[in-house]
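Q: I have two molecules that I believe assemble together. Could you output structure tokens for the complex as a whole instead of separate predictions?
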Amino acid sequence: MALFEVSLALSYLVFTWITLTGASAAQTMKVPGAGEQAAEQSHRQDSADLLVFIALLTLTILTIWLFKHRRFRFIHETGLAMIYGLFMGVILRYGLTQTPTAPRVLYNCSLVNGSESLLVNVSGRYFEYKLQGEVENLHDPGRSEALQKVTFDPEVFFNILLPPIIFYAGYSLKRRHFFRNLGSILAYAFLGTTVSCFVTGSVFYGFVCLARAVGALKEIFHFTDCLFFGAIISATDPVTVLAIFNELRVDVDLYALLFGESVLNDAIAITLASSISAYSPSMQNTFDTAAVFICIGRFLVVLSGSFAIGAATGIMTAVVTKFTRLHEFPLLETALFFLLSWSTFLLAEACALTGIVAVLFCGITQAHYTYNNLSAESKERTKQLFELLNFLAENFIFSYMGLALFTFQKHIFNPIIIIGALLAILLGRACNIYPLSFFLNLRRRNKIGFNFQHMMMFAGLRGAVAFALAIRDTETEAQQAIFTTTLLLVFFTVWVMGGGTTPMLSWLHIRVGVDPDQDPLGHSDTFQPLQSDGISRTKNESAWLFRMWYIFDHNYLKPLLTHAGPPLTSTLPRCCEPLARCLTSPQAYENQEQLQDDDSMLVLGDADVILTTPESAANGSSSRIMTGNGQPPISDEGLEMDGGAGHDAELVGRGTRLVLHASDGEQLT
Amino acid sequence: MALFEVSLALSYLVFTWITLTGASAAQTMKVPGAGEQAAEQSHRQDSADLLVFIALLTLTILTIWLFKHRRFRFIHETGLAMIYGLFMGVILRYGLTQTPTAPRVLYNCSLVNGSESLLVNVSGRYFEYKLQGEVENLHDPGRSEALQKVTFDPEVFFNILLPPIIFYAGYSLKRRHFFRNLGSILAYAFLGTTVSCFVTGSVFYGFVCLARAVGALKEIFHFTDCLFFGAIISATDPVTVLAIFNELRVDVDLYALLFGESVLNDAIAITLASSISAYSPSMQNTFDTAAVFICIGRFLVVLSGSFAIGAATGIMTAVVTKFTRLHEFPLLETALFFLLSWSTFLLAEACALTGIVAVLFCGITQAHYTYNNLSAESKERTKQLFELLNFLAENFIFSYMGLALFTFQKHIFNPIIIIGALLAILLGRACNIYPLSFFLNLRRRNKIGFNFQHMMMFAGLRGAVAFALAIRDTETEAQQAIFTTTLLLVFFTVWVMGGGTTPMLSWLHIRVGVDPDQDPLGHSDTFQPLQSDGISRTKNESAWLFRMWYIFDHNYLKPLLTHAGPPLTSTLPRCCEPLARCLTSPQAYENQEQLQDDDSMLVLGDADVILTTPESAANGSSSRIMTGNGQPPISDEGLEMDGGAGHDAELVGRGTRLVLHASDGEQLT
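A: Yes, here they are, computed for all two components at once.
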């Protein structure tokens, strides 16, 4: 049967190939409508180019299925996509004979240099010509053009392929585990990425100097180039490792740490990279305090601005879906959700901020607020839609990376730089994880063990974001060398480190097979009694800040923006009663009543006493847990996206007030 | 509440507007990274342009919801989208002050004329410049450029926006009603559209000659231009009217006729238009027999080639989904389905065929075969995905049409031509519907009444396809006049005729509130006894051909390509037994057993005697109906996509053989 399946996949490829050949044969045939001929031919060529990618993706999907079906884990789907891309790149590079296109007119001139567009006056009619870029290989225009066509606009990555990936990361974030480890995640993402950026950049600069000293390097590398490399290569990829983690159900805290870090550090890396490239390049190698402060200021403005836009659009979507009865028409609701989420990205880009960061926070806000207001059908639809978009975009990027190794025409391979870069990123990652973990462990009750630290070190794969940042600008030779190095590092980390994840997990004795939804409460299907280990593991290290935010969110933001939560009439002071009544949705009152005699309660808040009844835990239902004064404690179920139905099961309004009376620092379960 | 909702919608628009203004203000501020400045600015401008459309779509969605909520029917969502587009067009045209962009270098030269690209040699480095088009307004480059940006590439319509619309039309086709009226639909689509094209073209040419005679026209209109106009304007739009029909549940046969015709005539119109524009333009006004035959030959080749590609990809997807266990992973399955369906379009375009036609037949094939093999989740996913894409693409096109009236810069308004075109399309439509209906009624038992004919005449709205064909090429003045005329005709038909659909239906006494799934079998929820009228209404006019195809499909194709249908072992001759056993899926045997004692049977086949038990009909379940010799007759449930669960309830294998024994021409129910 396996043979049959593979032959199916191959036959599809052959079929596409034959059609493509047929298509290029058709192009040499007489094409009617002589005036439109060139346009039609280029249109057909575009279609054929896109087909190459679709064929690659189809092949990848079929092979992924085969691997999943047979439970192969030594290589991940992204690694596969890259391998197929590599093959296709080889074929395109060495196997393609392209008929030269329409002759181009050659002008000799000394005026135009980097001018964006030319106006040509032909007997009174003006034609506009736009700069396409520099032409390298003048004598073989056919092939280089064909390759250039397949190597398409890096803007596409940023505007079309990355946003759904990042949005989905935010939208599908397991927020309970994320928020529990928020402090550490922020530390790794902000401090760690910055540290990693500068360490990597400096070490890399050392190797660059070494290479120049031994004469192996001709390109001019400024220190800012090296820092830029440090920034882009510090963006770790959440895709590959976490897919394996998800499949193996690795420990939830490790998962939350790695996922949170890799999602947020994309944002930081992007902002860092743009700040560094904005650091006035005329003054390089001389230290300019003002420029550094401008750079830091820019970093902060861009980050907070993008965050604000993302959160604002998310909140607006929540308001619109709450106060209109849009949920009667799931199609309209889904379309609105999709459009508003996408507009976040464009809005941020139009304001010269970072769309990726905005879209990440938009995803988190949408999941936290808007998701509660959607109809059941729209909940499914939005999740599935973005899951699909994410899947397609991801595999597309990885197969494109494979392709780029052969079709990109300005590679600069320099062994010293490549090896230096590899050492630099390992060192940079080490300087991120180990010292930070040490400092975090000083304050964390739930220590990050050495096995976790080693795993985090090992799981620092580089992927789509690093690649997209590197390909964005490949004008100077230094940038071309950086692009080549980044591409090779992505290959190395995805294949070697991605492939080694499963052996590494067992070697480090990290437990797998954990049910992420049930485990931390100690009443998963296989009953586990609460142990002191289990309790300390779930310690929320940023307890105070987190709790203040949680109360504010639960008492005011959630009731305001969603149908869930306690009614505002019970949380706002008396004087605001009319306003509160106007803003509270009827469902909120129902929820309150329903919840007051609801038996299924999940617990995260501070509780004085925890009573777990083994019977209820053993039969799979969640146990009723009482706080010291007999009130049901806070659940963080409201923070959790997965599990759909549990969403409206919000907690009792007065439960939140309890937190303030509960003694701080007690056990958190 | 309504006030609140509208204010919400408006506040979103204002918000977007402010941000856009802020964005353009930010653009005038100092942008760091001087080298990338121009690229960054153009990137931000692109984002802002796209935002305009997203804001428009969002506003449209909110208003659509409001209208649906309040059950307004005097204007349809597409009409609304156009109105918003118009407003935005006015603002962009008269309200936008654009800072002029980077200065362009002006060259005087006599060599370059229509050359696609220029090579410029600047001291040894070669830069390539690509033709952007002719510049009209040299002295106000800022505004014209900004408008040009919003007026984007017509290729986008063809490659990105139309395919999902057409695919969805094929995928969601109610095949039972479609196949029952196949003969008439094909007649209207093939003959009718061709007749309409030539009548409209000729009448239009008459008006053009008239306009030139009275001196109201300066442009050169060839007869081929007029025929081209006839072709593009013959593509009626399935969107607007059918959305209303669907909502009001209009008579299923009228629905099937109109839907089938408007979907297929898009394909015919596109093929006609490309054949006409390929008709060697050097010999116009002289009749060239060879060129006409080449044109007809081309038409047939393109149509059949596109059909073949569409069907082939559909069948391939069916085979892949049948013989792999991909349905264990709905995400992979959906992704594969999406990619293969999209690749149909590209494949056809790469082969110089018509992607739209291919994608339409691909949609029909996917719904007929592949859909049966998908997992339950993928069935939902694919339907919802394409529904969303269709919705977004449709509204985008209609709001873009509104925008184009003001932002397109080469409009040629000529009152005589516009009024002439309106009369021409009415006459062309009349020559399509009335004579054809007369001839069809000669052979149909279930006559197409005059009220249906009037409704079909009235429902000939023009929409996305006509617009996309017209905008594709606007180089000559005749083409520009045709574009303007088409745009205005779309406005007129969508607003006036689309808005008048509901009154027209009641004026023509066409029954509404029909349940499309239950009605023809006479056992809908509200019990209707079978009447002679009901029986003649469901007469399948192309009985013999249809039945032959149906038997072949049911006995061989369905079992080969899907899990449904009778096992091949029972339909193929004995000698093929090993092959049949290999190709039959295990589910087919199960289906067979399950169906032999299954009570829920739907009926379409030829049956000698029909027994309807009023009890079973009244309680809503489908009734058991027996043929003369006591065997359950053929159901056409297998041809039906909607109703999901009913799919696997395929009929008994031996039932099909019965048809051959059943007397031909008996009643069909």
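A: One point stands out. Chain B touches chain A through 112 residues (CB under 8 Å).
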